[in-house]
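Data follows
____________
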Amino acid sequence: MKYVLIFLLVGVVFIASVTFGAHNDQVVSFNYLVAQGQYRVSSLLTFLFGLGFILGWIICGLFYLRIRIALMRAERKIKRLEQQLTPAEQTTPMAQAPVTVVPKE
């Protein structure tokens, strides 16, 4: 369900940007770090929206990758500690008959 909502949201944004671009053929001057260019508003907005979308995915992907690596390390550490604990349990003598403690009156 979550993915359907995300897909619908992206679809609505895409349709809105196409509609906006169809009605805005005005040419604007865009100054960037090393040069200047004349671009249509719709083309410029499409490019910058796409660039922001890709950059956002890259940043979120890096955070996700960092979390996954930390999780794998933690799971590996847990597994190693469990393996260290298992031989210690095997070397202890078998438990004797259970002892019941009767409280004094």
User: Anything to note?
Assistant: The chain has a mean pLDDT of 85.
